[in-house]
Amino acid sequence: MNARPVIELRGIVTRFGASVVHDGLDLSVQRGEVVALVGGSGSGKTTLLRHIIGLTRPAAGEVSVFGAPLFSGSVREQRTRRRRFGVLFQHGALFSAMNVAENIGFPLRELRLATEAEIANLVALKLAMVELAPSTALLMPAELSGGMVKRVALARALALEPELLLLDEPTAGLDPDRSMAFVELVLSLQRQLGLTVVLVTHDVDTLAALATKIAILSDRRIVSCVSLEETMELDHPFVESFFRKPFGLRAGVRSGGAR
Amino acid sequence: MRSPEIATDPATPPGARSVVRLQGDWTLRALANRLRSFREQLAGRRDDVAWSLNGISRLDSFGAALMWHAWGKRWPESIEIPDDLRAVIGRVAASAESPLPGVPRFNVVDAVIVLGSMLLSFRDHALDFTRLLGQLCLDLAYLLRHPAEWPLREISANVYKAGFKAMPVAALVGFLIGVVMSYLSALQLRAFGADIFIVNILGLGIIRELGPVLVSVLVAGRSGSAMTAQLGVMRVTEEIDALSAMGISRTIRLVLPKVIALTLAMPLLVLWTSSVALLGGMLSAWLQLDLGMAFFIERLPQVVPLANVVIGFAKGAVFGLMIALVACHFGLRVSPNTESLSANTTASVVSSITVVILIDAVFAIATRSIGVPR
Ligand SMILES: Nc1ncnc2c1ncn2[C@@H]1O[C@H](COP(=O)(O)OP(=O)(O)OP(=O)(O)O)[C@@H](O)[C@H]1O
Ligand SMILES: [Mg+2]
User: Fold this and answer.
1) What angle do CA B248, B250, B252 make, to 5 degrees?
2) Cα angle at B98 between B94 and B101, to 5 degrees?
């Protein structure tokens, strides 16, 4: 069972009306890998994550998670499978009627396994993990800043001790320090628990620090899924603009400023 | 995944501590099935035995919290544990030290505060409502001076949504009510041989009273709730803020069209519903009392003075105005969370129906000597 990839996508086709977003897309993610999914805006990254979570179903192709098709088995098995992954949505998706502590404790409470004392303890722990002060626990989502929303959402995604973490633009809206801290956090969790992580990001720093592999979504399929070094060698227009140009630009600005 | 185990080695020299070995994966998913028995086996013997955690292959924070709480939030006296696991439990322990701020308990002072804030919120509502009315008057004055800025498209869209689209359901309800009223009255009237008075009863009852109130209840449930929810969601998604940021008046753009549209559409809807209800009553009277339709139609204007139609019309306009105002008032009060959205939508429908019935009573008193043949 361990030999089978944690996520396996085969021949995914997605259409919205007449527009085709994915066309015969394949991707597999092994246990313990951190895969960064990159691609232009609107190339279908979020849509792909939604397929993996099972919120939408592709028009064709198969999504397997933890070695079994996503929608196979009894309702109970499907539910158990879902509890094995934590998801951070692009816009947080916090429950607006609950405060921060209730949001984080919600999945645990729904499981009906932990006692209230344990839940309070675990919520405090997750809050500390994402570097939020305990006093934020009583705030409502509407009272949080954009970056805080992200961190609370991450804490909630971690509540059920997931084996697979799906992150949609986790560091967008965080300041550089916080996004580095976030990267450290994910890395330490990953080392500790052997987490598998799939993240969508536009941030080259996050990606360089975190990803063991980079999957490039372009022209409606995954054009490559290899390590950063190998990706940099690739001859592809997207690699050119995404990885090389920004560095070039920054360097240019810097030398321009120096003169 | 290795399943978690608790193994107990008997004490080697009798009298010494026996060794409890924890083994396998101590993770949320692995523990889920046998949680209760584990909790029991861990609890209450922290210092009585020697613990060995060397056999644990994976430990997540749930497992760590389980142990820590079972141990009564202290390290056992005798424990063998690898450093990385000690760190995991240590983090849980540290966060147990600095607990979250609790939600304060409810006490007598809070009860007084709740009572006071209820009164204040009533005052708030009144002030907000007055402010909204005032703003609408200012907007109207502004629009009269700048006729090019009338939000005509929004008004017509709202007339279509709240008026035209409500016609089928209003007709259905009106027709059935007409049939039922006619049927019930016919039974009574026949007992007295006063068959032809059914025209008076239906005519007065439906045109003056039932039509407007019936339509108001329908429209409050149908369009009033929709208006509140729409404005509320726009608050939640910051669309209203975006409008303000563009320098577009939210009252002219969002509230005024709804208010004007409903004030225009309601009287027409009342007319439509009353007509269909009368048709239902007429059919029923024909079948029950053998009262010819032509006779019914001929007699109706004789026994129901025109003033009643005017009253019905006026009621329709006033009710429509009030429903739209109340709906918009509550919609703009929604704070950005789902709970407040649902509370305000409920409050909007309940208040607008209550307001309609109150105003109806005022109408009844004010017009008690108009249009009632004696
Ligand atoms: N529910 C939907 N109905 C119709 N089209 C949709 C829907 N969801 C997404 N799309 C389209 O699918 C394409 C991919 O959208 P998606 O949200 O996956 O992009 P993305 O790669 O996540 O972009 P970004 O980096 O901007 O978040 C877009 O062109 C979008 O317009
Ligand atoms: Mg996206």
Assistant:
1) 85
2) 150
Q: Other CB atoms closer than 10 Å to residue B91's CB: what's the count?
A: 16
φ/ψ (deg, to 5) at B14: -55, 140
Annotated domain spans of chain B: 5-97, 151-366
Nearest CA to CA, how far is B255 from chain A (Å)? 24
Which of A125, A127, A194 comes nearest B61 by C-beta? A125
Of the candidates A19, A38, A41, A17, which has an alpha carbon nearest to the alpha carbon of residue A27?
Answer: A38
- Give me the average pLDDT of each 10-residue run along chain A (259 residues): 78 90 90 89 89 89 88 84 85 87 89 85 88 88 86 88 87 80 81 84 85 89 85 82 62 43
Mutate to test the interface with A, among B25, B100, B334 (most CBs of A within 10 A): B100
Q: Are B203 and B303 in contact (CB under 8 A)?
A: yes
Cβ distance A161 to B28 less than 8 Å, yes or no, reads: yes
Q: Are B70 and B42 in contact (CB under 8 A)?
A: yes
**Contact between B30 and B3 (Cβ < 8 Å):** yes
CA distance B277 to B77: 85
Q: B282: Cβ–Cβ under 8 A, 6 or more apart, which residues?
A: B178, B182, B202, B293, B296, B297
CA dihedral of B232, B233, B238, B241, whole degrees rounded to 10: -40
The Å distance, Cα A42 to ligand 2 centre, comes to 7
CATH topology of domain B5-97: Transcription Regulator spoIIAA (3.30.750)
ipTM of the complex: 0.76
- Terminal C-alpha separation, chain B: 90
What tokens appear for B372 in the block?
Answer: 């009632």
| Residue nearest (by alpha carbon) to ligand 1 atom 8 | A47
Best to test chain B binding among A31, A118, A165, A195 (most B CBs inside 10 Å): A118
Q: How far is B3 from chain A (nearest CA, A)?
A: 16
A124/B68 touch (CB, cutoff 8 Å), yes or no = no
Q: Edge to edge, what strands does the sheet with A19-29 contain? A: A19-29, A7-16, A60-65, A68-69
Q: Do B27 and A124 touch (CB under 8 A)?
A: no
Whole-angstrom distance, CA of residue A101 vs CA of residue B103: 11
Helix (H, G, I), strand (E, B) or coil at B225: helix
Q: Which strand (E) or helix (H) includes residue A128?
A: helix A116-129
Cβ distance A190 to A170 under 8 Å?
A: no
A45 Cβ below 6 A of ligand 1? yes
pLDDT digits over B258-300, tens only?
999 999 999 999 999 999 999 999 999 999 888 888 998 999 9
Cβ neighbours of residue A59 closer than 8 Å, sequence gap 6 or more: A13, A14, A15
DSSP characters over B310-357: HHHHHHHHHHHHHHHHHHHHHHHH--SSHHHHHHHHHHHHHHHHHHHH
